[in-house]
Design goal:
The structure holds two protein chains of two kinds. Chain A is mostly helical. Chain A is built from 14 helices and two strands; from the N terminus they run H-H-E-E-H-H-H-H-H-H-H-H-H-H-H-H. Helix content of chain A is 73%, strand content 1%. A two-stranded antiparallel sheet of chain A has the order 1-2. In chain A, a hairpin with a 7-residue loop joins strand 1 and strand 2. The N terminus of chain A is likely disordered. Chain B has one domain: MetI-like fold, CATH 1.10.3720. The relative contact order of chain B is 0.14. By secondary structure, chain B is mostly helical. The radius of gyration of chain B is 23 Å and the shape is globular. In chain B, helix 3 packs across helix 14 and helix 4 packs across helix 8. Chain B has 15 helices and no strands. Classes of the chains: A mainly alpha, B mainly alpha. At the A-B interface, helix 1, helix 2, helix 4, helix 5 and helix 6 of A face helix 1, helix 4, helix 5, helix 6 and helix 9 of B. Chain B: It is a multi-pass membrane protein.
Chain lengths: 308, 280
């Protein structure tokens, strides 16, 4: 609105520059058009197509058979579908609470105004976030190998037996969760640090004068004030965990015994099996779930005084 | 926050945390530089430096093709993001036009669309177009993304209107104002966008692994994952250690470009990450 109203207010004669005025009217549409073209071609079209596909049985060739809600019914009664959601839910429990606590601890440590070498620590914490996931997944394969890996080598040195980090159903999820935590906790620290630094130092000084202890200050000032950053993190990481794909795809291929077949990887399995109608239905169920979870997280973590 | 000088405990904790984040990277790089057999027999000590793993890896793995394909996708897709997203952001920030709120609402809505939902339908669209195993399949989907538009709108909204009007008075065309007034002013924002876009395209994996299956079009990440699958699928064999050496060499060399960019441009990088959290 500003550009047009300012022009009108500045009182330039309307007829003086007709070409430019018509340009003004058309140009914003031209400027946003490329996004909408790309989105229509590679967003809306495939979405509509997928919705239609989700009501059919189709294996990538020949005619599709209309099955109504059959694919949805199949998935909702399929143990494998629920197992994939269960695996993702366990991953979520192993990742999000730990990341929030560790992220907050790291951020509080970094927030001290008199800290030296802050830049250096920040670089170290964020380095994993920059590394390609696939490359680090390879490192995980090697480091957590049952027979020759570094971790079991260390365990043997102190007299402990080998652990099947990637080959036992008990440890496969925590080992992948650790990869996710290692890679993204630095990101959490930086986000929470920004939230912390938005709190004016004067607020803490006032609290200290009022006699609030350090612990008291943390719980009644810091935590409520970084709630917004925490809510953001929980939403982003919930989306990421339920779409987790590359970690199990590269490191465990969903095994052992399907224990790391996350919701994201299960979706991919439909592609491999050329069961595309079911895959499309699975996509939409997953979207509904992820939407619901993010909405719930936003509700739960919203500061109480905010209405919308 | 608390203004007391940090004590040794605080530094020790920070150092411990830093070590936990850096050690896997250090271990991968240093192990890739020692004789392959030592990676298995003596994973702790660095050992004598050798480039044997790299030589073997370059001979066995099409990593050069991977780098070239990633560079091509990065150049074209990155250029599209860097040009069209600020342009759309400018329209949303500084113009009044009928339908603007609706259109911007659509942009915001697409922000919430999980990537995964589009994978299967996009793949089908690509095969209908005959685009499986092509560069356009790797480049076009997601080339003008909603988040970057949203971010650039926020950045451009902070420019005073007077500056833009002054550009108009000087007789610049509408696009001229964007190119010669707006873009120079938001240079720091563009730098952050460039760094973040580079990271996202370079590390992108889910779509490339689905869209491309012939070696000649594989991006770097897909080449790496193929190598990893060879390892997990082929555990037994005399040259098991050699394969590990190649794996670590490939991983290390793939990490390098982004780590260098990150260390050199960390300020822009961190600005980019923080810009993303504002939408929350």
């Amino acid at each position: 609105m500003s550009a047009l109203t300012t022009m009108a207010r500045s009182g330039r004669a309307a007829g003086a520059r007709p070409r430019s005025r018509r340009g003004t009217r058309l140009s914003p549409y031209l400027f946003v058009a490329p996004f909408f073209l790309v989105f229509a071609a590679f967003g809306i079209y495939p979405l509509v197509f997928a919705l239609q596909l989700s009501f059919t049985r189709w294996h990538g060739a020949g005619a599709a058979t209309w099955v109504g809600l059959g694919n949805y019914a199949y998935l909702l009664t399929s143990p494998e579908f629920w197992a994939s959601l269960g695996n993702s839910a366990v991953m979520w429990l192993l990742i999000v609470p730990i990341q929030i606590v560790a992220g907050l601890a790291g951020a509080v440590l970094l927030a001290n105004a008199k800290l030296r070498l802050r830049g250096l620590f920040r670089v170290a914490f964020l380095a994993p976030f920059v590394t390609p996931l696939v490359a680090m997944a390879q490192v995980w394969i090697v480091v957590f190998d049952e027979d020759y890996g570094l971790v079991n080598h260390l365990l043997n040195l102190v007299g402990l037996p080998d652990v099947g980090w990637l080959t036992s159903t008990a440890w496969s999820k925590p080992t992948l969760a650790l990869l996710f935590l290692w890679k993204t906790t630095g990101f959490a620290i930086i986000i929470l640090l920004a939230g912390l630094q938005a709190v004016p130092a004067a607020v803490y000084e006032a609290a200290a004068i009022d006699g609030a202890s350090r612990r008291r200050q943390f719980w009644s000032l810091t935590v409520p004030l970084v709630r917004r950053s925490m809510a953001f993190l929980v939403v982003v990481q919930t989306l990421a965990v339920f779409q987790m794909f590359a970690e199990p795809f590269v490191v465990t291929e969903g095994g052992p015994y399907g224990s790391t077949t996350t919701a994201g990887l299960y979706l991919y399995d439909h592609i491999t099996a050329s069961d595309l109608g079911t895959g499309a239905a699975n996509s939409f169920l997953l979207v509904l779930l992820v939407f619901g979870l993010s909405l719930g997280a936003v509700r739960l973590l919203r500061p109480k005084d905010e209405v919308s | 926050m608390n203004q007391t000088r940090p004590g040794p405990v605080q530094y020790a904790l920070l150092a411990l945390l830093a070590a936990a984040f850096l050690y896997p990277i250090w271990w991968a790089v240093s192990s890739s530089l020692k004789p392959a057999a030592d990676i298995i027999t003596d994973p702790l000590s660095p050992g004598p430096v050798t480039l044997d793993n790299y030589r073997a890896m370059f001979a066995d793995v099409p990593i050069g093709t991977g780098f070239a394909n990633t560079a091509l996708v990065l150049a074209v897709k990155g250029a599209m993001t860097m040009f069209f997203c600020p342009l759309a952001g400018y329209a949303f920030a500084k113009y009044a036009f009928p339908g603007k709120n609706l259109l911007f609402g659509i942009v915001l809505l697409t922000l919430m669309l999980p990537t995964l939902v589009l994978i299967i339908p996009l793949l089908l669209e690509m095969s209908a177009l005959g685009w499986v195993n092509t560069y356009q399949a790797l480049i076009l989907p997601g080339s003008i993304d909603a988040f970057s538009i949203f971010w650039m709108r926020q950045t451009i909204a902070a420019i005073p209107d007077e500056l833009i009007d002054a550009g108009r008075v000087d007789g610049a065309s509408e696009f001229g104002v964007f190119a010669r007034v707006v873009l120079p002013v938001i240079r720091p924002g563009l730098a952050a966008l460039a760094v973040l876009t580079t990271m996202n395209i370079y590390n992108d994996f889910v779509w490339p692994v689905v869209a491309v299956n012939d070696t000649s079009h594989q991006t770097l990440q897909v080449v790496l994952s193929t190598l990893a699958q060879n390892v997990t699928g082929n555990r037994i064999g005399a040259d098991f250690a050699t394969v590990w050496g190649e794996l670590l060499a490939a991983g290390s060399i793939a990490m390098l470009p982004l780590l260098v960019i990150f260390v050199l441009l960390q300020r822009h990088f961190i600005n980019g990450i923080l810009a993303g959290s504002v939408k929350g």
